[in-house]
Amino acid sequence: RDSIAAPTEGIYGEFTYELSDSSLGSDIDFQRFGLRLTVLIPKFKKRFISAVNFAGWIMTGDGIPFFELTQLGGKNTIRGYGQGRFVDQNGYVVNFEERWNVIRYNVAGVDQVIQLAGFIDVGRVFAEGERFKLKDTKIAAGAAVRLVVPDSELVASIDMGFSDEGSAVFVGLDYPF
To answer: What is the pTM of this model?
Structure first.
């Protein structure tokens, strides 16, 4: 990517492995595997940026504490639902966002960009042993308004998503992915 916090192009990938094991002093044995891939595609001299994100998690083990389970819903997964709305062992999320740099201006020598974005978020959690299927997949769509300060890598964001359960609003100082 061309920037850590305010990227406009590039690819980001991440693989994680977490282990809780009785041989390490834990009371609970489980493993979590995670994969994330984000692709940013600029168009029209970076006036528009297509952002595509995929993430998936697989957990194995019994008696996994609720707070360790895969959670979907919230600013970084499915923005039409509240934080942690859906919980189970495994899960996936796919996000598509079209970012539009509407206005670029300079204040006191600092470049700033007003950005609008439309998005669609899709995801699902499921139990261990359950086969991958699209049934019960949750979908949300919405929009965001952002102030981006590229030189400082600051992104002030207000995202509003709509789903079958209503709407949710998230405020943050970064991109969702």
So the answer is: 0.90
